[in-house]
Amino acid sequence: MAAARPGAVSRRFADLYLHAATLIALAPALMVAVGWTGAKFGLLSAEFGLGVMAYQWAPHVASASVAAGIFGVIVALMAGFSRFWVRALLVIVITTLTLLAYVWERQAQPWAPTLSHSSAAMVHELS
């Protein structure tokens, strides 16, 4: 299989795609922040803010950001890696840190239930 020549993808496309991939990589952290803040201030129910938004939807978006990050590296390689490598690496780092945070949260306190299983109990703590 022949290697792709630099410039096989337009720089404009690579620029737009890597901006979008960065936003996708930041979305799970934003979802968790909105869910937690909304539940804390009574704007969202704890079941929706913490249980659904932070611990169900955000991990799925984080999984999608892995694919966006890998494709971002491919786009950076095809558009000229010397110009786009920093943004491609940034997307991969943000995604990796997000996924590590989810793994750490689930394993941090094995004797206590995670927030995803006790979001109803959080209503009393947040009040």
Plain-language structure description:
The protein is mostly helical and 127 residues long. The chain has 3 helices and no strands. The chain has one domain (11-126). Helix 1 (11-40) packs across helix 2. The model has no long low-confidence stretch (mean pLDDT 83).
Q: What's the multimeric state?
A: single chain
Cα(first) to Cα(last) distance is 61 Å
The helix content is: over 70%
Main sheet specs:
none
Please state the CA-atom Rg, rounded to the nearest Å: 18 Å
Low-confidence stretches: none
Q: Calculate the mean pLDDT score and round it.
A: 83
Sheet-strand content, in percent, reads: under 5%
Structural class, from helix and strand content?
mainly alpha
**N-to-C order of helices and strands:** HHH
Tally of strands: 0
Number of domains: 1
Number of helices: 3
- Gross morphology is elongated
Secondary structure layout:
Layout: H1 11-40, H2 46-108, H3 119-126
Helix pairs in contact: 1-2, 2-3
Which features characterize this protein?
mainly alpha; 3 helices; 127 residues
Structure described in brief:
By secondary structure, the chain is mostly helical.
